[in-house]
Specification:
The protein has helices at residues 10-21, 27-35, 45-64, 72-80, 97-101, 107-156. By secondary structure, the protein is an all-alpha fold.
Length: 157
């Protein structure tokens, strides 16, 4: 199976792309990036079959469970099979699976986090709306109270 990184290591490609995108690449994103030509086609038939299998399984899972997000990384591991001991595909030499997997959230975890953040955002917007409605009334009451205090102080002094 060929790759398109040339003399650049996977670690270097991953770091460059992470800097461009603002997040670390998933295993699937890294595979697509390193096995796709500039024209968008895959470098060889083996890579094309892997991508086709991933897309087919992802489509099947999306049909079977439309409410659940599809975890492409899990599908990638199914398609590619077990990794060799002490290696992690797409990370180059050095990293182990346990050191990498703790850093990258799965798509399911990311979807759950996004949904939680959306709910919190909605609640905060509702609170802000309530505060914006109450603020003019509170300001008016505060002004009238200060005027009363001012007149009271003027009468006493």
């Amino acid at each position: 199976m060929s790759k398109t990184t040339g003399t650049r290591s996977f670690a270097r490609v991953r770091a460059e792309e992470a800097q461009k995108l603002g997040h670390d690449l998933t295993e699937v994103e890294m595979f697509y990036l390193t096995h796709k030509k500039k024209d968008g086609s895959m470098v060889d038939s083996t890579s094309a079959k892997i991508v086709e299998n991933i897309q087919t399984i992802a489509a099947q899972r999306a049909e079977e469970q439309p409410s659940e997000p599809v975890d492409e990384n899990h599908i990638f591991l199914e398609v590619m099979g077990k990794e060799r001991h002490g290696r992690v595909r797409g990370y180059g030499f050095g990293p182990t699976h346990s050191s990498v997997s703790s850093k990258l959230p799965s798509q399911l975890q990311m979807a759950s986090t996004i949904e939680t953040l959306r709910q919190e955002n909605k609640e905060l917007k509702e609170k802000l709306s309530t505060v914006e409605q109450i603020q003019p009334e509170t300001l008016s009451l505060l002004k009238s109270f200060m005027e009363e205090v001012y007149w009271f102080c003027k009468v006493i002094l």
